[in-house]
Amino acid sequence: MFFSGNLCTLKQGSEADGLKQGTMHLLSRGELQLTRKGFVPLIVRAPSVLLLPRALEHWVQGSGPQGVDLMCATLSELAPPLDLILPDITVIDLDATPSLQRLVELLFEEAEARAFGYRAAIDRLLQYTFVVLVRHLIDRQLLSGGVLEAMVDNRLSVVLSMLHESPEHDWTLDSMAELAHLSRSAFALRFVQMVGMPPLTYLTHWRMAVARNLLAQGQAVKAVAAQVGYGNATAFARAFQRATRQSPSAWQMDHLGQS
Question: Do residues 226 and 167 make contact, with C-beta atoms less than 8 angstroms apart?
Fold first, then answer.
């Protein structure tokens, strides 16, 4: 959580949200205006949850003289499959989603009471709220993406599971195909058709997501390299630079707020 309270008119020069991380805005009362450069402002009425799962520059302000009662939180780096299937902006009407509505009510109660440990309680509730939100989207088939189908496919699910659990393993196309009990060519074709990218590309995508999470925890670059399957820090740094346009150390300093 980085904001909780009443938000009125956006002040001139206010900083944009979503420059480095995804954000989640929870509205308990009032009307919110979300503004992005080059887009028509989006009006969201409470009670609602507004999810922007990846870095996306935007400004928010309360509409009307009473403003909006709002809680804002940052999201950690998302990994596959969520980063592949969640849309840039999702609005959930809480009046139609009782399971989420009660969670949001609890969050605002904690923020208002400010009892001992309220920040830790809010962080945990926010994590659970995100899980329930994604669950809601999946249950109502509001998410699209072949990776979801691949995760329940009788041949690909075991491969995806092992990739997720052991990114440090020396994976090859042959070893993945063997797990799927398919020929090399048949596996590669099936993976691309269902997931939308080649297996080794997906593996790199997953490794970089894991690496970002470990770097954000403050782990050393060399240690992170070994945990995501790179034999040395130099090879890892090259792959990370291609994926993020930053070196691992620069990305880490940026996200840990160091200079």
Answer: no
- Rounded to two decimals, the pTM is 0.68
Task: Dump the DSSP string for 80-101.
Answer: TTHHHHS-S-EEEEGGG-HHHH
Dihedral Cα 99, 91, 51, 101, nearest 10 deg: -20
CA nearest 73: which of 33, 111, 43?
Answer: 111
Sign of CA dihedral 177, 178, 183, 184: positive
Q: Which of 199, 108, 115, 124 is nearest to 162 (CA)?
A: 199
pLDDT for res 83? 73
Instruction: Kindly give, in sequence order, each residue whose CB lies less than 8 Å from that of residue 91, ignoring residues fewer than 6 positions away.
Output: 42, 44, 48, 49, 50, 51
CA distances to 46, 77, 167, 208, 256 from 215, rounded to whole Å, are 36, 11, 15, 10, 9
More confident call, 51 vs 65 = 51
User: Can you tell me whether residue 145 is helix, strand or coil?
Assistant: coil
Under a CB-based contact definition with an 8 Å cutoff, are residues 60 and 2 in contact? no
Q: What mean pLDDT, rounded, does the chain reach?
A: 87
Of 41-55, 59-73, 132-146, 188-202, minimum mean pLDDT range: 132-146
Name the helix (H) or strand (E) containing 25. strand 22-35
Q: Measured between alpha carbons, how far is 219 from 34 in angstroms, rounded to an integer?
A: 35
End-to-end Cα distance, the chain: 23
Instruction: Tell me which DSSP letter residue 17 carries.
Output: B
Q: What is the torsional sign of CA 248, 253, 257, 259?
A: negative
Give the model confidence (pLDDT) of 211-243 as tens digits. Answer: 988 998 899 999 999 999 998 999 999 999 998
Q: How far apart are CA 92 and CA 47, in angstroms?
A: 9
